[in-house]
Amino acid sequence: MNFTYFLFFVCIVICTLIITYWAARRSKTTMQFYTAAGSLTGVQNGMAIAGDYISAASFLGIIGAIALNGYDGFLYSLGFLVSYIVVLFFVAEPVHHLGKYSLGDVICERFPSKNIRILMAIGSFIISIFYMIPQLVASGLLLRLLLDLDYSTSVLIIGSLMTVYVVFGGMIATSWVQIVKTILLMTSTFLLSLIVFSYYRWDLMTLIEEVKLGTPLGDQFFMPGHLLGNPLEMISLYIALVLGTAGLPHILIRFYTVQNAQEVRKSVLTASGIIGVFYLMTLVLGLGTAAVVGYDTLIQQDSTGNLAGPLLAKALGGDFLLAFVAAIAFTTVVAVVAGLVISATTAFSHDIYHHIIKKGKTTEKEQLRAAQLSALAIGFVSTIFALGLKNVNVTFLVSLTFIIAASSNLPVILLTIYWKKFSKAGAIIGMVLGLISSITLLIIGPHAMNVNDGLFLRDPIIDLYNPGIIAIPIGFLGAIVGSYSFPSKELVDYEAFYIKAQTGIDMRSVDE
Questions:
Q1: The pTM is what?
Q2: Best CA proximity match to 439, nearest among 451, 448, 430, 426
Q3: Confidence label for 99 from pLDDT (cuts 50, 70 and 90)
């Protein structure tokens, strides 16, 4: 075991545990545990959102995808970035005004229903688990590289640590771990990008020529079609990436951690700026990996491309730079996973336990205990799943999560807020169809069904790797057709609801 690697790893763990200890002393109520009691500023929350969003798929998977597939790998970065336009203009402020802890709160503000709350909780739980698995996979690969530990041991260590962060520190610890992670990640990525340019004497054309020599794609490296040869596949992927963010529960619940709409807007704008700069740097690092490390070496070390960033750091700066970058990547994984655990925990303890099982009659102590036990259970489940999935590029797994979010959550959120004729039945039908269709299409597609190394060793039923172009319309159509077929019988004051969604002013209480 390399002592430098071990030292960096121990420093990161100690720092995050100190943050958790500090936060644990302030997480005495459910509001503090779930939302940090709205104590963050817009800039702080924007940094935390960026930390939550820039996952292992971004720092590890996309760099590898660019190094291995060229132009097509960068398409993921563009899709992830553009998605915040949808969040900013259509979702962020209404979610802040309508909800308290979870997405179930938002929908139930218009359609009070146990069934809807249960479905929203199930959807949030599934999405969080799907997103969590690739983070844990990446962490297992990192610790195997960093400390020469067995993959299973590495995943168990990370799973245990992230559970501790959430159980004891709640949203306060999660937020500050994400903020610190963002600062460290942006600093290290910027420095590594500068080192790449300086390695080629600040000559971009020399870097590009070396990229062509370092990859079997040659001049075709900068042309589309290597990863997404089918135009329909590319369109489908883009639709999922652009729309998926607005349905991700672990991103949306972050808008409860600030006090007002102005801070919500600052949150989104800050996050978008950080994310945009970061993804530009992933392009530089992807090119640098192809040129400095080379395709053959990358494939030999890790065929999925997930270790492209750390391998580039080692090639440019030896063990010290590798240890530094790998430690930052580890922090990235920890921050994202902690946010996902909070999201899944909120869905179960607030929506299911508090509202459904206890019918809203629980004490602060009971809710807090339920949240902590939920975090333990969710950490255990996600860790078990991650143990068997180490041979897949994590970017792919995250893109599947975006498809599920865009197919199930997004139609219900948008139509609840913006369509007067939307009904409770439409919400239930849209949620169910979106969830079932997206998961089914993924199961019968070429990722799961593959004669060589799929979960099912057979030919796929559909050829689309990214079936969002089918699943997302199914979710919207199900919600729309369901609303026309089963209109709401309840007299809902939609105008008052819409005013509250856009301004936060509850006209119903004003009238009273």
A1: 0.87
A2: 448
A3: confident
Phi, psi dihedrals of residue 413, rounded to the nearest 5°: -65, -50
Query: Phi first, then psi: what are they for 456, rounded to 5°?
Result: -120, 120
The token pair at 127 is: 């999405």
Cα angle: 141, vertex 147, 150; to 5 degrees:
55
How many Å apart are CA 216 and CA 295, to the nearest integer? 7
User: If you search the block for the tokens 């080692």, which residue do you land on?
Assistant: 314
CA–centroid distance for 167 within its chain: 20
Instruction: Please tell me which of 125-134, 273-282, 368-377, 488-497 the model is most confident about, judged by mean pLDDT.
Output: 273-282
Q: What average pLDDT is seen over the chain? A: 84
Asked if residue 176 is part of any domain, the answer here is yes
Residue 168: other Cβ atoms inside 10 A: 17
Q: Which two tokens stand for residue 228?
A: 């997404």
369 vs 5 pLDDT, higher one: 369
Query: pLDDT tens, 395-416?
Result: 556 667 888 899 999 999 999 9
**Lookup: tokens for 501:** 């969604």
CA triple 262-266-272, angle to 5 deg = 145
Burial letters 81-109, b for 16+ CB under 10 A, else e: bebbebbbebbbbbbbbbbebbbbbbbbb
Q: How confident is the model at residue 9 (pLDDT cuts 50, 70, 90)?
A: confident
Helices of type H across 150-260 = 151-199, 204-214, 231-244, 249-252
Task: State how many domains the chain has.
Answer: 1
Residue 117 confidence class, pLDDT cut points 50, 70, 90: very high
In a domain, 415, yes or no: no
- DSSP codes, 380-400: HHHHHHHTT--SS-HHHHHHH
CATH number of the domain to which 93 belongs? 1.20.1730.10
Q: Which of 127, 399, 444 is nearest to 239 (CA)?
A: 399
In a domain, 384, yes or no: yes
Question: Using CA atoms, how far apart are residues 137 and 55, in angstroms rounded to an integer?
Answer: 12
d(C-alpha 325, C-alpha 305), whole Å: 16
Among 98, 132, 100, 133, smallest CA distance to 412 is for: 98
- pLDDT value at residue 224: 79
User: Whose structure tokens read 């060793």?
Assistant: 457
Four-residue CA torsion sign, 284, 286, 289, 294: negative
Angle CA(2)–CA(7)–CA(8) in degrees, nearest 5?
105
CB atoms within 10 A of CB 9: 20
Domain range enclosing 150? 3-22+31-389
Kindly state whether residue 289 falls inside one of the protein's structural domains. yes
Model confidence over 310-353: pLDDT tens digits? 888 888 888 888 888 877 877 777 778 888 888 888 888 888 98
Cβ atoms of 413 and 245 within 8 Å: the answer is no
